[in-house]
């Protein structure tokens, strides 16, 4: 394994998928931070095995309609709205 | 294989479909918001923290959607695996408020099904690779121009979370027509099951994969050499929303790919968008690949173990089974039985009519006369659903001898469809009521008196002479007598 498990190209690719614009310094900073973050997970190797609870299966609800939020409530957190719609930048 | 070699060879078309159908449930797939759009409803009025993707909201699976999926699996003769589960498909686009879509990935609820389709008189088995549950995204409006040139985007999440089933076929279609037939049959099966409403806007959406292989790589059973299939570049056509649209979009794509190959150019492997209004497909230049979706398990939804539901859930009689029953119970031939079970509405109407009339007579009226005239007018039985009682009355009128069969078929039925009039009104307006027996008897007597030569011929053993006499009587009665009755009456008189 190289010293950085996530390289700059991978950071750029993931940033592009998330539509986030990063400059070169940020790309490098994130690449090295990823290495640190992933290293934290090594701590899990030290955790002893514990008995786990039985897994749930078939958790479902009946097909019944419940009350919805009002339009006002639904849009309450939106930075911009127009005629009851969420408003956002152009996408393509 | 190079494009240069390919351009010299005959080409065969290979098509596979991914069909998204909206399942008919009351509430959304992971929350209790209604799936029923009110007329002229306001945007963002059927949402809640779950379908808006608000932090901390947890999805809970709708049992009704799972039942519908199991019904579909049963109808497709598919396997319902012991355990199925949900995944997150990650992509960043505002139609999904969570930045991922909950769908199924490596453990779909249905696998390895089949649908039989009649294609150009031949029964073909189309293999369904998988069918899985997922949530519908919301809808976007690109304001101020096309997608690329819009000023901004408006988002409505009323549709977000509507239950969808994605049905994926093997590449088993050899023409756009076959793909269309399959879609029609699939819709019919889903409607028989009561899990789908074709009249709902956007209830059927299709993505089609299409490629060309050398025709000699297809064997007599229609199987394609796997290497040849893998070597061929395919395009995925998105945004198809009807059977007709599918046939048109695929026909366009066949021509486009053939032209490219014949000019020695390779078909580019890409995603294309069907532009219904312009009747063409356009490249979408999508850069994302399957691995970019970073599928991972949706741990907010525990796995499902519902393979035993297959025994517990009943499904209604499906078109193919109903066809076989019609053949046995009513003694119909394959063609009539197929026509009469082509849609649930037609089959139901036939079973109404057959309660009152002879099965063959009922079949002729429904399959040949009514469906024939409807097809000719590009109408379906659902367009005249409210008036089916009028067609039954027309058959009753013929049966009671109040109108001849010929007039009923050629005049009354057609005017009923064209003018929207009930049968009695047409008969009255056209003066088509059958003439009284007296009048026919008089005409028979006259015909015998006026045509001694024909009478002589008939008595001399020339059978054809009777037809001439029948024709004379029909002319005298203006075509409103029953030719069979006239024939019998003439024979009776002449044989005395």
Summarize the structure.
Chain A is α+β, with helices and mostly antiparallel strands and 92 residues long. Chain A contains three helices and three strands, in the order ααβαββ.
Report on the architecture of this protein:
The complex is a heterodimer of chains A (92) and B (496). Chain A is built from three helices and three strands. Chain A is an alpha+beta fold and 92 residues long. Chain A has a two-stranded antiparallel sheet with strand order 2-3. The longest helix of chain A is centred in the middle third of the chain and has 17 residues, at 24-40. The model of chain A has no long low-confidence stretch (mean pLDDT 88). By secondary structure, chain B is α+β, with helices and mostly antiparallel strands. In chain B, the strands form three sheets. An eight-stranded mixed β-sheet of chain B has the order 5-6-9-1-10-11-12-13. The termini of chain B are far apart. In chain B, 39% of the residues are buried. Chain A binds chain B through residues 17-19, 55-71, 74-75, 77, 82-92, and chain B through 25-27, 31-34, 42-49, 52, 54, 60-66, 83, 90-94, 140-142, 147-148, 150-157, 288, 292, 294, 301-306. Strand 3 of chain A pairs antiparallel with strand 8 (152-156) of chain B, so a sheet runs across the interface.
Q: What is the topology, as strand order, of the major beta sheet of chain A?
A: 2-3
Helix-strand makeup class of chain A: alpha+beta
Low-confidence segments of chain B, ≥5 residues, pLDDT <50?
none
Strand order of the largest sheet of chain B: 5-6-9-1-10-11-12-13
Helix content of chain B: 25-40%
Low-confidence parts of chain A lasting 5 or more residues at pLDDT below 50? none
The averaged pLDDT of chain B comes out at: 89
Task: Give the N-terminus to C-terminus distance of chain A in angstroms.
Answer: 38 Å
> Which architecture of the domain at 8-44 in chain A does the CATH hierarchy give at level 2?
Orthogonal Bundle
Q: Helix count of chain A, per DSSP? A: 3
Biggest sheet details of chain B: 8 strands, mixed
Radius of gyration of chain B: 30 Å
